[in-house]
Amino acid sequence: MFAKDGLGMIAGSFVVFFISLGAAMLFPHPALYALATVLGIFAIFNLFFFRDPERNIPQNPRAVLSPADGKVTQIVSVQEADFFAKEVQRISIFLSVFNVHVNRLPISGKVEYFVYRTGKFLAAFKTEASLENEQTVIGMIDRFGHKVLFKQIAGVIARRIICNVREGQAGNAGERMGLIRFGSRVDVFVPLDANVLVKTGDTVKGGETVLATFPEEGEYARVDETLLELPEREPAL
Q1: pLDDT higher than threshold 80 for residue 44
Q2: DSSP code per residue over 180-196
Q3: Is the pLDDT of residue 124 over 60?
Q4: Least confident segment among 20-29, 107-116, 227-236
Q5: How many CB atoms lie within 10 A of CB 58?
Q6: Architecture of the domain defined by 63-216
Q7: Domain ranges of the chain
Q8: Cis link prior to 84 (omega < 30° from 0)?
Q9: Is 13 among the catalytic positions?
Q10: Number of H helices and number of E strands within the chain?
């Protein structure tokens, strides 16, 4: 199975390859044969790069799933101003060109925050890439009131971010939501009280690996509950 967002590039690369191969056969020349070979390798690489395997999605409603395949490069506490507006834990995942690049939703819930930012194309493994590189930022809240923020971050080679969710949309954990090509990074932000289950150096699979688990109840739900318990005021005379 191949990612639908990559079908156009797969088809285009094979069309160009067959045209170059036809030209080499009509006008035999070492340069044309070399060009056809390079384009053929690139077309086959696109088949490999845009693969989209099925995943066994955990049915744990309090689990935070990895949005992407890759390697955990950093787990740190940071101040997050966009969605949480407080200190949280950030789990950074680096995707090489050999990883599956289809991205998936980390939790089931509603998208409450979305923004696309233009930026630099620093090496994705650099710490400053989380703030300075081109990226999409998506914040979600689940039915228990737990919040998760995650970023699709471009890298040196990755110049195209595809995000198929927007603010107000709902989705399920493990559901496909986008793609980054080629080589990139995903950052996942969870509250400090979330139990992180991975460590630096771990290899993770999008929609399958559980990065962290939430406590029994989320902060957002507790705020709502407190507001609902407030007594109604008597009308002013």
Answers
A1: yes
A2: EESSEEEEEEE-TTSEE
A3: no
A4: 227-236
A5: 14
A6: Distorted Sandwich (2.70)
A7: 4-49, 63-216
A8: no
A9: no
A10: 4, 14
